[in-house]
Design goal:
Helix content of chain A: 55-70%
Shape of chain B: elongated
Order of helices and strands of chain A: EHEEHHHHHHHHE
Low-confidence stretches of chain A: 216-221
Largest sheet of chain B: 5 strands, mixed
Number of helices of chain A: 9
Number of domains of chain A: 1
Number of helices of chain B: 5
CATH topology of chain A: Fumarate Reductase Cytochrome B subunit
Largest sheet of chain A: 2 strands, antiparallel
Structural class of chain A: mainly alpha
Strand order of the largest sheet of chain A: 1-4
CATH architecture of chain A: Up-down Bundle
Oligomer: heterodimer
CATH class of chain A: Mainly Alpha
CATH superfamily of the domain at 69-239 in chain B: Oxidoreductase, molybdopterin-binding domain
Number of strands of chain B: 12
CATH topology of the domain at 69-239 in chain B: Sulfite Oxidase, Chain A, domain 2
CATH architecture of the domain at 69-239 in chain B: Alpha-Beta Complex
Radius of gyration of chain A: 20 Å
CATH class of the domain at 69-239 in chain B: Alpha Beta
Amino acid sequence: MQTLELKHRLATRWTHWVNFPVLTLMIMSGLWIYWAYDPYRIGLGDITLVHMFPDWFYKVSGIDRKLAFGMAIHFVFAWLFMINGFVYAAYTLFSGEWRELVPDAKCFSEALAVVKHDLGLGPLPPQGRYNAAQRITYSLIIVMGFCSLLTGLAIYKPVQLSWLTTLLGGYQWARFEHFWLTMGYVGFFGIHIGQVIRAGWPNFRAMVCGYDLAKGDSNAQ
Amino acid sequence: MLSNEQELARRTRRGFLALGGGAVAGMAGLGWLSAGPIAEGDIPANFRKVLGLNEKAIRSALYSNDHLAPAFPASAIGKIKANGDDGLDDDVEDEDWRLEIQPYGADDVTQKLTMEDVKSLPHHEQIIEFKCVEGWSTVTQFAGVRLSDFTAKFCPGSERAACIGMHTPNEEYYVGIDMPSAMHPQTLLAWEMNSEPLTDEHGAPLRLVIPVKYGIKNIKRIGTIEYTDTRPDDYWAERGYDWYAGL
C-alpha cells in the first residue's frame, strides 16, 4: 500500500505561492520603470540582436508611459517581496531543510545526468526531495532574489547607501545587474512551468497540498 | 478510517481551497490598496501612504548629512541632457533677475537678491553623478554656493522650517524639499555647469543642484525661495511621482 508522504511543508508552500504574484507585480512595475530609459540589448559590438525591448513589445504589452505608477507599485510591493523572501530563507535555515536544498559537491555532476534525462537521453539519478539540477537552480534563485534586493537598494538609495552602490560597480552597473537578474527570473519561469507540466499532476498537487503518495516515479519539480 | 487515497483527496481539496482563498484574499487586498481616494497624480492614496512611510523610515534609519554623493574625476564628466523646459518659457535677462525670499514665518517675500548677493557666499564646486528619475545618469560638474550657507546668511533661523519651496519666476515649475536634504552640504544654488555659465535650457541664471534627490527636484531658474512648515506643492509629485524623491 502506498503511504502519504509530506513533500513540501506549509511554510515552503505559502512563501512559494505568495512570491508568485508579488514577483509578477515587481517584474511588471519594474518594466514600467525600465521603459523610461531602456539602453540594454543582446548583442556584441555594433551588432544588436535584440534591443530590450522593441517598440512593438511595449505597444502590445502596454508597458509604456507608466513610470510614476510603476515606481509607486515597485516601492510598495518591494516590502512584501523582501519580507516573504526572508520568511522563506529563515524557515529553510532554521528547519534544517537547507540541507536538502543547498547543492553539495556531487550535485554538479548529477545535474548533468538530470538534464540528460530531461532531454530523454538517460535515466534519472536517485534523488531526495529535490534532484541535483533543482538543488542548483532553486538555490541560485534564492541567491538571485537576495541580489535583486541588494541591487534594488543600490539604485533606490544610491547616496545613502553609496558604499553598496560602489561595491556593485556604480549606479548604472547596479541598474544593469538588477535588470538582468529580472530577465533571469523570466527565463527560469519559462523552464519551471515547462518542467511542472512535464512532471504532471501529483507534483503540482504536492506544491499545493503538501502531500503525495510515496512510491512511483515522482519527478518532483 | 480514511484510506491514504481518501486522505490525500481530502488534503488536496483543503490545499486548493486554501490557495483559492489566498488568491481571493490577495485580490481583495490589492483592490483595497488601489481603491479609496486617488491621491495627487492618479496614485491611489494607500500607495501614497506607504511611500510616505518609506520616506519616514529612510529619513530616520538611513538619511544623514554625512552621506555624500560620490565625487568623480573631471575625466568622467559626460554630456548632460536638458531634459525638461517646464517653467523656462520666458527668457530672463540676468540683470533683471532677482531671487525672492520668503523667510520662515513671514507672510510674503521680504528680500529680493541679485546674483552679486548670492555670489558673495563661499564658493563650492563638485563633480557628481546627476540622476534622472527616468533612470539615466550623467557625471556633471556644478559650482555655486551651499543652500545652507545661503540660508544662514540671508534668513538665519529659517532652518527651523520643515521644508523649502522653490518656484521658477513664472511659477510654472516648482519643487518642495525637506529641510534635511536642503541643508545637505552638497545642495548648491549653482550658476556654473561643466565650467561654463549655466545656459538657459539648464536653468540660467541660478538653479538648484541637490544630489540627494532625483533630477526632477533640481529646479532650474529659481525665482522664489520660501521656508515653510507646510509641504510645498511639487510639480512632479502632482504628476504621480514620490514627493520625497530622495536618493
